[in-house]
Amino acid sequence: MSLYQVQKFLYNLNRDEQIQNSFTKNKEEVLVDYDLTEEESNALVSGNIGLLYVLGVNGQILMHFAAYLKIEWFDYLQAMRDGIAEHGPVRAGIYAMTGGGKQFAQAPDSSDGEGVGDSSQ
What we know:
The protein has 121 residues and is an all-alpha fold. Helices cover 60% and strands 0% of the residues. The chain is built from eight helices and no strands.
């Protein structure tokens, strides 16, 4: 796996309007410049946020790709959960899951009063 290359591409895409325009027109042509596995390339071409997350892409970089794809915030979060459900725990990077990802893979229950803004966690 070439996680560095995936993240390098996404970093460049997030910051370079010319790369954004080129990627919109011909995704495969732009990706030739990066040393990617077939799985990584397919995930980028298809915009598979869940798989990219499982492959280890940093969430700070990935959220900008989701915005580029016009994916809403809560749909982005759900896509990561769906990725874990479909592809298993995060495989590499800072988000690699030692506990199998079970805690993140479940959407928080908003009725329990915990979660966002709750400092008791």
